[in-house]
Design brief:
mainly beta, Jelly Rolls, 12 strands
Length: 180
């Protein structure tokens, strides 16, 4: 079983001045806080892709969801329903690294987690089990190894299991007719 507050290691490759492949960075990441940690592993908001040969993360705004043409690579842990979330940090001791502004429509927790974003989300369940529920109540249960392509629809994630569920996702910002 993976812990809710686990250590995520990011290794990135690049090129040296001679054009040879190198390991450009090897770092442990901090999560973005909250009851179910989200680790942004990599992301970028830019046009004219160029490899960051020094291993640094490309230019990326402080938002969970990317703008059109941007991307995020994240790992998300969802606690079982009814489980105690991670304790909230003491006031003034933690500032979220990412914000939900661009391309996001939803409210947590008032809306029960129901939300949508101007993105295509390519996800794989790594451990545990999750239920993906759409706005009309239709749902599918996903287990470790299952994948989902979430195409900007209104949805929420529910963990009805008794262990945390861990997912990895690549989130790609797209034009969405219902978002300005």
């Amino acid at each position: 079983m993976r812990e809710l507050n686990m250590t995520i290691r990011r290794v990135a490759t690049g090129h040296n001045s001679e054009g040879k492949a190198v390991f450009a960075s090897d770092v442990e990441l901090e999560h973005d806080g909250g009851g179910g940690p989200i680790y942004q592993i990599w992301g970028g908001d830019y046009k004219g892709v160029h490899f960051p040969d020094d291993g640094s993360e490309p230019a990326c705004e402080d938002e969970y969801f990317p703008r059109t043409g941007g991307f995020r690579y994240v790992m998300v842990t969802l606690a079982p329903n009814g489980a105690d979330p991670l304790p909230e940090p003491a006031p003034g001791t933690f500032t979220p690294r990412r914000h939900m502004r661009h391309g996001f429509d939803g409210n947590f927790p008032e809306g029960g987690g129901m939300h949508r974003s101007a993105s295509v989300d390519l996800m794989v369940v790594l451990s545990g089990e999750l239920t993906l529920e759409l706005d009309d109540g239709a749902s599918k249960t996903l287990k470790a190894g299952d994948t989902i392509i979430q195409n900007g629809t209104k949805h929420r994630w529910i963990n009805n299991g008794d262990v945390p569920a861990v997912c990895a996702a690549v989130i790609i910002g797209i034009d969405h007719d219902d978002f300005a």
